[in-house]
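Most newcomers find our protein records easier to grasp once they have seen one. To make this concrete, we reproduce a full record directly below:

…
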Amino acid sequence: MNRLTTSQGEFDLARFPENPRDPLRAWDAADEYLLRRLDGAEGSEPVRPAGTVAVVGDRWGALTTALAAHSPVQITDSYLARRATLANLARNGAAPDSVRVLSVRDAPPERVDLLLVRVPKSLALLEDQLHRLAPAVHAGTVVIGTGMVKEIHTSTLKLFERIIGPTRTSLAVKKARLIFCTPDPALPRTPSPWPYRYDLPADVGAVSGCTVTNHAGIFCAERLDIGTRFFLKHLPERTGPDRVVDLGCGNGVVGTSAALANPDATVTFIDESYQAVASAEATFRDNTGPDAEAEFLVADGMADTPPGSVDLVLSNPPFHSHQAVTDATARTMFHGARAALRQGGELWVVGNRHLGYHTQLRRIFGNCVTVAGDPKFVVLRAVKR
């Protein structure tokens, strides 16, 4: 846990799940820059939050917690960000009902008077959210975005300008930058181009030729990523009433492949992204029969899965947390998978060869074998003894 000191006050903040050994803070210079700008500390007139304040894409709840006195609406795609926000509000004494926390799948507020946008890693997610919020923005709405310099590109600014109105940027401070956008009510209100659908190639096993649905923000949303493609060609061949988990499911193509290959299996799709789980459900429903059984869970990995209840876990773990490269997520997923598996249950993982997942799996499971590999990827199997 670390303390964020701002003109709005001092706040003890942590990521979720909280890990005392995690060196990464729950905020960065972009969050600090925006909070200073709202208070007028950057040489401009202060922005007095009034009416409906919407905070979009707050990574760990730092912005929402600092502005809790103004009863903001937080909009997030991340279950972990949602949990972090609620925990940070509680540890700083904010009333439980001081903030309304919405997912990106929920209907946004009908009117927004102050719109604060933490620029996401995914340009598609930003595009989709601006389209969804544009009807709520009016000529008097103050719109400010924030992000690190490496996160804000010409394409980012063009999105704000095309969907909301004229846009300019601030000078960079501590490698962070602000985006100022003036709403133009005369701009045409076009629908979001998302979700995006495409057909899979003919050489990827049980899902060959199937249609995949990708809501905005899903990794590699416009095509099948090469790691998943390699994984699909080497999934285990199983029969019987297995309980299978597609962990970190993304668009659900791996779990759908498992379901099509073994119609007696029950597949659970788990991701911390609301957009991912919605994508997985659409992909599954479009390609399986009406009687196919599946669960779709937005969750912190397998933290809520009953111990010893799963036969097979399939995973292509992420190795980024926003812009930070970290294997912490993969480690958490591996530990969660081991706890959830029955004796003899298996975890199958695909990953970049250089990530060295085999070392972690041997440490956690006591065993690991390489099922398949090429110069870039490996498919690994670990068994719960």
